[in-house]
Amino acid sequence: MTVFEHAGKLLVVDCGVLFPEEHQPGIDVILPDFTSIRHRLGDIVGIVLTHGHEDHIGGVPYLLKERPDIPVIGSELTLAFITSKLKEHRITPKAVHVEAGDTHRAGPFECEFVAVNHSIPDSLAVAIRTDAGLVLHTGDFRMDQFPLDDRITDLRHFARLGDEGVDLFLTDSTNAEVPGFTTSEQELTPAINQVFATAPKRIIVSSFASHVHRIQQVLDAAHAHGRKVAFVGRSMVKNMGIARDLGYLKIPRGLVVDFKKLQSMPDAKVTLVCTGSQGEPLAALSRMANETHQIQLNAGDTVLMASSLIPGNENAIYGIINKLTDLGVKVVHKGNAKVHVSGHASAGELVYCYNIVKPTHVLPVHGESKHLHANAELAVRTGVDPENVLIGRDGTVIDLVDGRARISGQVEAGLVYVDGHTVGKVTEETLVERRLLQEGGVVTVVAIVDADTNALAEPLEFLAKGFVHDEHVFDGAADKVKNALARPATSKVADLEKLESIIAETVSRHLERAYRRAPLVTVVVVDA
Ligand SMILES: [Zn+2]
Ligand SMILES: [Zn+2]
Fold first, then answer.
1. How far is the CA of 153 from the centre of ligand 1 (A)?
2. Which end of the chain has the least Cβ crowding within 10 Å, N or C?
3. Which residues form the Metallo-beta-lactamase domain (predicted)?
4. What is the CA(134)–ligand 1 centre distance, in A?
C-alpha cells in the first residue's frame, strides 16, 4: 500500500495482503497497518488498484470496512475481481472504471493510466500529477513483447511522461537481481503441449486462480489434444467465470464441462485445472496429494504445476511433489520443464525503462531489501544521481516539493495479523508464544499457596502437553520453587501475579537446565 498526500487529501495506491511464513503459525493473512491514515479516512479521495493480484487488492475489504464509500479506481478485470471479493464481505464498492490512456481526477490528484503487461490481464501503471510534481508508479509489470492478448507495456506512453518530466519513478523491484529480459509467456507453449501430447491418463494443472493467460494456454493445449477441462476449487471456478464472462478467457465451445461430467469420461480425455500451486494446505492440489480430496490421483496421472515457486513456500511445494510421486503421479514443474515465466521485469527491462523515462528521482518498490538495492543500482547505472535514488521501508515518508524528493520521516507501519475472525488482535507477543508451543510444548503448573506465608499449601501439580512424557521430568522443580518462594525478598509478597512469575521462571530454568528445552510455562496460583 502506498499513500500519496497533497493539499490535505490522500490517494491510496494498492492495498494488498502478505501471506504468512513458517514463523507466523496460524495466521491467515497479513494486512497493511492503517494506523497512520485511520484518523484521516475522510480525506481519502480514492484507492487506485494497479491490478487484481492478492498482494495488491487483498487488503481493500478491510480498509472499506472502515469507510465503505471510498472510490475504488481500476481496470475492468481488476474491478471485477475486487467486487467479487468484496461481495463475500457484504460490501458493494463505489467502483470507478478506468482504462489505459484514461485520465481521472481524484481530488487534487490527476491520475493517468498506462497499459502494462503482467501475469494477470488488464494491469495498469499510474501517473499521478499534482502541483508538487509528476509521479509514475509502474505497479507490477514486465515487457513481454508477444503477450497472448497483444497488450504490451506501453513504452511510448512511458516515454511521453518522461518527456513531460517524471519527478519520482516507483518501479517494481521483484526481478531486479535477474539479468536480461523476462521471456515471453508464449515460450511455455512447447512444454505445455509436450505434457498434453504424452500424458497417458488424466492431467491435473495447478496455477494461480488469477493467471488467466497461463490457463488460456492450458485450455488451448487441451482443446488441441481432444481433452475436456473442468475447473476445481472455489477461487478457480469463480475467477475463471469472471474472466470468461468479460472476454479475457476464450473458451472453445464444449471444452469446459462440469467436474461431475468429467468423472464418467476416459482418463485420457480429462484435464482438471485447480488451485494450490503454492502448496497451500487447504487448496485442491494439497488435498489431492494428501488423499483428502474427492478426486483421487492414481499412477499414470500427470500433475502440471504451471506456476512460480514463491520463496518461503518451497518446503510445502516439495512436500506435495514427493507425495504425488509416491502415488505414482508424474509431476511436471518449473524445476524439470519450462512451464513458468515470471510476471515481473528483469534487470534489462528495468534499465530500458529508466533510459526511456529518464526520471529525476527513483523509489524502488515491491521487493525485499536486496531487490530494492539491486533495483537502485540499476537506476544509478543509467545515470540517475545516487542521491536521488531513495530506499524506503514500510512507513517511510517521502516529501516531493518542487520536483525534489527526500525521505522526511517515518510513520507507524507494522504487520497486522488476520487470525480467524480477528484482525490485529494477534500480536508479535502471541506469535512468540505460538512458536514456543510449536518448539517445546506447554507446561502448566498449578500452585496452591498460603497467601500469608507464601508457602505451598499442597504439592505442585504439573500438566504437560507436547513436552517430554517422563514421570520424573518435574522431579527437583518442586524443591526449587519452594526455595524460591522462601527467599526473604519474595516473602509476604501476597501478589498472585508476582508469585506466578517467580514460579514460571524457576520451572523454566529447571527444564532448560535438565532438558535443554524451553516450553511455554504457564502458572495458576490459587490462594489456599
Ligand atoms: Zn502482481
Ligand atoms: Zn505484486
1. 14
2. C
3. 1-192
4. 23
